[in-house]
Amino acid sequence: MKEVTGGVCAVRGVRAYGIKEGKNGLAVITGIGSSASAGVFTRNKIIAAPLVVTREHLKSQQLSAIIANSGCANAFTGEQGLSDAAGMAGIAADRLGVPVGLIGVASTGVIGVSLDMGWIKDRIDSVIAGLSDTAEGSTAAARSIMTTDTRPKEFAIELVSGVRIGGIAKGSGMIFPDMATMLAFIYTDADVPYEMLNSCLKRAVDRSFNMIVVDGDTSTSDMVLLTATAEMGIKMKTPDEPGLSEPEFQEGLDCVCIELAKMIARDGEGAEKFIEVRVTDAKTDGDAKLAAKAIVRSPLVKTAVHGEDPNWGRVIAAAGYSGADLDPDRISLAITGVTVVDRGGIVDDAVVDMSGTDIEIAVDLGLGACEAVAWGCDLTAGYVRINADYTS
């Protein structure tokens, strides 16, 4: 497996473009799901209208295109919001000449505000005209869906078989997945049947987007869409036929999702430091995830990282309330590679340097063989400034 340039447009059969005007943006991505399309959505009980429409369209297990806007989440907007989301799909379908039921719709921005459908209608033709299979097309689409993001997020890889997987994402604040305000649109040129595509996506999301925390808020609009264009002509391996193995595809999809997730964590609102929390030797996978996410979510841990203060007691406390099974006498803890707790014993002479931009926290629970990794960022005054007057 190797990284390749081009973002989502590195995948054969995919074109993309977008525009950004102030806080408002509009993007279109085309790539017919000749094999299948699958999606994962927020678990917030307040579900934005575009997610309702897209989930309905995904019952066909195929998408031909995605239309996405930034600046307005079209969430908590009632029947008008549903009508507007369906209208976005209709506009894209009409311009692209495809059935409306094959259009995915996404929105991100302020909650409780209606879409400016006139703005979208006035600009859709220029976006369609700009569609491109180049790296520039991918970047334009990635930029257009940014809100408080400071940089576009795109990544692509090529497997040994030649199959490519690439995607773009947005997300900076309101990040605590179940999923994270984040969007991700991922494509592959392999020929993957729906059942496998769907199960691989869920596993990849659990290992990536569901393991990042910026501020602990779960958005109304989170969405990850995965489409297989089958343009490479490589099918999944069967007992009787050669092809792409499921483990190889899963590894590649995991890689793309993890890299995009880490980009979101690094670009957290106001963030100055990136935090990786690795929990090992947990009794179960669930325990490892609980502990890792509790630590990276803790405001006290985040502020300590920002202040470059190795206050390791905050890490221990977060692990303790996480719900994970643990024994205080078996815990070991290292910060930036320096052990501060060793099997329950305090290392008095430990000297921890937290001046770097990447801070690694490693917790060994000493109870089993399971592990998990979570990613996040420090909590800064910049985060407060950004969110104190977001709508005003």
SSE topology:
Elements: E1 2-3, E2 15-21, E3 24-30, E4 36-41, H1 49-57, E5 65-72, H2 78-96, E6 103-110, H3 117-130, H4 135-144, E7 153-158, E8 164-170, E9 183-188, H5 194-207, E10 212-213, E11 223-228, H6 246-266, E12 274-282, H7 285-297, H8 299-306, H9 312-321, E13 332-335, E14 338-342, E15 345-346, E16 358-364, E17 370-377, H10 381-388
Parallel strand pairs: 5-6, 9-11, 10-17, 12-16
Antiparallel strand pairs: 1-7, 2-3, 3-5, 4-11, 7-8, 8-9, 12-17, 13-14, 13-16, 14-15
Notes on the structure:
- This is Ornithine acetyltransferase.
- 32% of the residues lie in helices and 26% in strands.
- The protein has 392 residues and is α+β, with helices and mostly antiparallel strands.
- It has 2 domains: 2-266, 4-Layer Sandwich (L-amino peptidase D-ALA esterase/amidase), CATH 3.60.70; 274-388, Roll (Ubiquitin-like (UB roll)), CATH 3.10.20.
- The strands form 3 sheets. The protein has a 7-stranded mixed beta sheet, with helices on both faces.
- Helix 2 (78-96) runs parallel beside helix 3 (117-130).
- It is globular and about 70 Å long.
